[in-house]
Amino acid sequence: MTTQKLSELAKTIRSKNAGVNKITFDIIFREAALYERVKRTRVLTRESMAALYRIPAERISDFVEYDPGLAIKFTIYRLRPSGSAGDGDIFGAQQYAPLLDLPVPE
After folding, report:
1. What pTM was estimated for this model as a whole?
2. Distance CA 17, CA 22 (A)
3. Where in the chain are the domains?
């Protein structure tokens, strides 16, 4: 089975704060066919993201496949508020890295 990295298929993969207690992730595609391929393979689901990030599924507050925007979005609860002692990423902007090499089958 042939696979491609998610970063080869998506136009944008990013993470950012969604308030002080959440981080949101956006995976946006240029082409509907690529978006539909990723949706069809089910590599991006609430459960698969919990496994990828090694967190309980309950920490994922939202998971949305947004067809009009060719985007898949999910949001996780932070363990501590943004900017508090022990927070390693105040802006939540460096949390998307595990998504880059995610293999997506044909």
Report:
1. 0.93
2. 6
3. 1-72
